[in-house]
Design a protein that fits this description.
By secondary structure, this protein is an alpha/beta fold. It contains 30 helices and 21 strands. The strands form 5 sheets. Strands 5, 6, 7, 8, 9, 10 and 11 form a 7-stranded mixed sheet that branches. Strands 13-12-14-15-16 form a 5-stranded parallel sheet, sandwiched between helices.
């Protein structure tokens, strides 16, 4: 502030304003009768603007890198779970894997927007308006949060109005995100009792409906002051709760923002020590579909007498409402003893219960024991059908319920209306037809696969786990795959091969995908060679960068198989199409899996590692062998990089070892790799040297354990099939396989490993076997150039040329 003298203010102000180094940034103000003008130096303003822009760019780059790092493991989770669903699984295993796949897909879609810096900063977060079923949204939500409730031994319930239209129009992802946030909070702040998600109709019209969602818990509750501070960023009830319960305090802020964007409002009611009730109302459009009567039983079950047994009153009431909507006459019992009395009384008056829905976890007498008494100790003329409902899905409980109590059906809480109905119908031997939506989807995917069958695709990818996912997905479509490990190799390979298309990663060593695409486009036009980005770079603007570089399309990681097949079918036209064989066809019937087992390997959690590979034992064994071969020199390479002050390489090697060891289930080595990676980032050489020594010791022991534990490959010997006595047919078969392997190697075709395995199982001289074994090891390390050289020498020694017919 300046110029308290009114007589000099005008002249001074005009002088200041005439100087172009200054700009006026506020209105005039009066102080003590004088004029006040706030001015700032343009240079200072420009500097501040540049600093703000630099900070914005840094934040954007940080989010882009974070997005890429998250998408890489997400690609493995979604891709391998999809592949696992194609194998033979029990119904329970299929349910678990499907929930993993659905949850990962939901997480990916949330990441796509949360990490999209430009949308968040510009307020451009868009809402979808698509058809969806509320049941699917609630089911996905339950799959993501019910395990946490089970771990805390809480009753997790869903009470959904039975007259909600089957199909709504709105944004199912955002609705699910809100419900997951609120349910997770409820479970986090509740130590005993229950969490109940209730959905009711607030208002209903011909073409629209307003639904009220309530997430109520019996947790610690909040005071009025604490409630007043909610829905603010980074805010929880108080600092002590933050320390005890953790969390960022962003969940409620995001939830309120989403609810308001969907045209609704959110509210909370809470009493200290008695829990909280978060509720919100959102309007949805309703499609022309009428409410179907598909959840009505056949005439012989209509109006049957049912007993609900559960010690939780809310759970009993929810189950009762569902059963009444099926036309059943429902009675309740709060424990096993009351259930036994009710069943005996029904028998005495000749009005027996035909169905009992029995909770497992009850005080004094659990559901299995109660069912055993009903089955074995009561003299009943009409034994009821018993369906067990529990929040605990352990195999031991299921086995005990089936073998000891002979239950007719089994339900894992939280239970939705259609799942309950389906289980009851199956328990009575009735058929229950679901919609044909799945078959329609499978038919569409199958058509895409048939279109691309026989195509030759170059996959450019530096991450080996992502290579495996892409390779197996494309093999399912009968696509011939060639691998390149960086952009430079891709450019060289394209010029020597005959490809129908390229799947190109973006972030790679040596040469990135954008540069490689520009190089390829110098000699290959778009119409002649389609290039599709398959990358974790999915930030705003990444697609445009790919298109500008000369690509036709963009597939974000983690890869959605349906999207992969559909986009390949859109752009790829095989020059040598092949009919789709039965083993490649998409089907509801999964293929069989190996019945082999693995011995215990010290330092490796085999069950954990096998789960990460979708239960595919063959792939897991292959991964263990590749880990043993590829990682034996890692510590030496890290030490050399540190000595050369190449911290970027040292950090990358430690990071890779951390991820690979975690994938196979080697927790200790993974943790030591993480510690080393951290100190390399922090540039603390003494700590790095100590941790590297510890890691080297642990890794050496691990590799030795894998080598000792893994069974040696079965190989024929000269004693089995003496070379000098080989039939002409055996020699011709071996020659054909050698020529096939040579052709595959010339195109860097990853499926050569199958051909080499077949060769190693045949009889041949020791020298030839050693050569083929060495070639196989080169392929395992992706050293195709050396493998090609060795194959040339092998063919020359047998007087076989690559082009020989």
């Amino acid at each position: 502030s300046w110029l308290r003298d009114p007589q000099s203010s005008t002249e001074s102000r005009e002088q200041a304003l005439s100087d172009d180094r200054w700009i006026r940034i506020s209105k005039n103000h009066m102080i003590d009768g004088g004029m006040v003008l706030v001015l700032t130096d343009i240079t200072t303003l420009k500097r501040a603007t540049e600093e703000a822009e630099a900070a914005g760019r840094a934040k954007s780059e940080f989010l882009a890198n974070m997005s890429h790092e998250i998408r890489t493991p997400m690609n493995a989770i979604i891709g391998l779970s999809h592949l696992c669903l194609q194998t033979r699984l029990t119904n329970r295993q299929k349910d678990y894997i499907r929930k993993v796949h659905n949850s990962a897909t939901s997480l990916l879609r949330i990441i796509n927007d949360i990490l999209d810096f430009s949308k968040i900063e510009a307020g451009r977060l868009e809402m979808e308006s698509i058809e969806f079923t509320l049941e699917e949204v609630l089911g996905n939500m339950a799959a993501m949060v019910s395990l946490r409730a089970q771990e805390k031994q809480l009753e997790f319930l869903m009470n959904t109005a039975v007259d909600i239209p089957p199909t709504l129009v709105g944004d199912p992802l955002r609705l699910g995100q809100i419900l997951v946030n609120l349910a997770n909070n409820a479970i986090k702040f509740t130590d005993e009792g229950e969490v109940c998600v209730t959905t009711s109709i607030e208002e209903k019209q011909a073409s629209s409906i307003a639904l009220r969602f309530s997430v109520k818990d019996s947790g610690i509750g909040m005071t009025e002051e604490q409630v007043a501070g909610l829905f603010q960023a980074f805010t929880q009830a108080d600092s002590s709760i933050t320390r005890k319960f953790g969390g960022t305090g962003l969940g409620l802020t995001i939830s309120r923002h989403l609810v308001e964007m969907m045209g609704g409002a959110i509210d909370v009611a809470s009493v200290p020590g008695s829990g909280s009730d978060f509720s919100f109302t959102i309007p949805f459009q309703v499609t022309d579909q009428s409410v179907t009567a598909s959840l009505l039983p056949p005439s012989d079950l209509h109006g049957m007498k049912v007993l609900v047994v559960d010690d939780n009153e809310t759970a009993r009431n929810v189950m009762t409402d569902y059963l009444k909507s099926f036309s059943f006459k429902v009675s309740q019992a709060c424990d096993g003893k009351e259930a036994i009395i009710a069943i005996q009384e029904g028998e005495m008056i000749d009005q027996p219960f035909r169905l009992v829905v029995m909770d497992y976890m009850m005080p004094e007498m659990d559901g299995i024991t109660t069912t055993e008494v009903i089955r074995n100790e009561l003299t009943l003329n009409h034994l009821p059908v018993v369906v067990m409902a529990t929040a605990y899905g352990e195999e031991s409980i299921v086995k005990r319920a089936i073998e000891n109590a002979e239950v007719d059906g089994y339900l894992v809480k939280p239970i939705n209306q259609s799942l309950l109905f389906e289980t009851i119908m199956e328990s009575f031997g009735k058929t229950y037809g679901r919609s044909s939506q799945n078959s329609e989807i499978l038919q569409t995917v199958s058509e895409h696969i048939q279109h691309i069958s026989g195509a030759r695709i170059l996959v450019v990818e530096d991450n080996k786990l992502n290579q495996q996912v892409a390779l197996e997905l494309l093999r399912q479509a009968n696509v011939h795959v060639t691998l390149a490990h960086d952009g430079k190799q891709a450019v060289e390979t394209v010029d020597t091969g005959d490809f129908d298309g390229v799947l190109m990663d973006i972030q790679m060593p040596v040469m990135d995908g954008l540069t490689a695409t520009r190089e390829i486009r110098k000699s290959h036009e778009k119409s002649a060679l389609p290039i599709l980005a398959m990358t974790a770079n999915a930030m705003s603007g990444d697609r445009e960068l790919c298109m500008d570089a000369g690509m036709q399309d963009h597939i974000a990681k983690p890869v959605n198989p349906d999207e992969l097949y559909s986009k390949l079918a859109r752009w790829i036209q095989p020059t040598r199409p092949e009919p789709l064989q039965r083993e490649h066809a998409v089907s509801d019937t999964p293929s069989d899996t190996s019945s082999e087992t693995l011995p215990e390997i010290e330092g490796v959690d085999l069950s954990s590692g096998l789960r990460r590979l979708g239960g595919n034992l063959s792939s897991y064994k292959d991964l263990l062998n590749k880990f043993r071969i590829n990682q034996r020199d890692t510590c030496t390479e890290i030490r050399q990089a540190i000595a050369a002050e190449d911290s970027a390489t040292a950090e990358r090697l430690a990071h890779t070892l951390k991820g690979l060891s975690a994938t196979i289930g080697a927790v200790s080595v993974s943790e030591k790799s993480l510690a080393l990676e951290t100190v390399i980032k922090q540039n603390t050489p003494d700590d790095a040297d100590r941790l590297l020594n510890e890691l080297e010791t642990a890794l050496t022991s691990l590799l030795q354990a894998i080598e000792e534990g893994m069974p040696a490959p079965t190989q024929a010997t000269e004693d089995d099939v003496p070379a000098q006595n080989e039939s002409s047919g055996a020699v011709a078969q071996r020659t054909a396989l050698l020529k096939q392997a040579a052709e595959q190697l010339s195109f860097f075709d990853a499926s050569v490993d199958i051909t080499l395995d077949a060769l190693l199982k045949m009889g041949m001289p020791d020298e030839m076997r050693d050569t083929i074994d060495t070639i196989s090891k080169c392929v395992e390390q992706y050293d195709y150039e050396r493998a090609n050289t060795l194959m040339d020498a092998c063919l020359a020694s047998l007087s076989i040329s690559r082009g020989e017919e």
